[in-house]
Amino acid sequence: MLRQVGGVTRLAGQSLLRMFTRPLDLAETIRQLDRIGVGSLNLTNVTALFTGLVLALQTAYALATFGARLYIGEVVALSLVRELGPVLTALMVGGRVGSGIAAEIGSMAVTEQVDAIRSMAADPVRKLVVPRVWATVAMLPLLTVLADGMGIFGGLLIGVFEEGLSPTFYLRRTAQVLTFDDLWLGVAKPVVFAFLIAVIACYNGLNARGGADGVGRATTHTVYVIAISVLITDFFITKLFLAL
Fold first, then answer.
1. How many C-beta atoms surround the C-beta of residue 13 within 10 A?
2. The model's pTM
3. What is d(CA 2, CA 217) in angstroms, rounded to the nearest whole number?
4. How many Cα atoms sit within 13 Å of 190 on the Cβ side?
5. Separation between Cα atoms, residue 152 and residue 62, nearest integer Å
6. Distance of alpha carbon 143 from its chain centroid, rounded?
7. Whole-angstrom distance, CA of residue 176 vs CA of residue 159
8. DSSP-derived secondary structure for 54-81
């Protein structure tokens, strides 16, 4: 376990160094932007929409005891923007994209394509890792913002059709409760999560051994390590922002 943490940390440092130095494989980065961002759009939006619906239903039921159903918009917006939006989007993208990256690079590793890249005096980190890290870091915050909007829209549907609130009232209360700190936190978290997702997936892919069975193990390992890492990191980021 400690060896893996050290390996991921080294790869993270190497990736950061190469992300801001030339050359950048722009064509591969654009391809990864499409695969990671556009390919995950339906998954994240559907997840966020139904999360907003369920959250609004539960909130309305809980607040009915106190006669405070008017506050559905505030609760849904704060919960989604500060926590549920970034975390659920990262978990969904981590499962889909992380497993895909690990499987793709792992297949290259077990078929010695990564060794072939090294034999041609090319850098596997720059060629394979950096485009995927850039694409994930660029797309996950955008996916999170869209997911937040879909979740708030889901809450709006419940507020209007179940609780009889007007759309204008719901949206006005939602806009009033969200502060710049909430929005900043909701965007900062996905950047950190995205870097973790890409680096962990690439590390497990590069270190896959043992043919198809090894690729399968690397892919499975990637999914649960990403999930645990996102949840642990979320706690510390939230604690840090609350302390500032």
1. 11
2. 0.92
3. 18
4. 32
5. 18
6. 8
7. 17
8. HHHHHHHHHHHTTT-GGGHHHHHHHHII
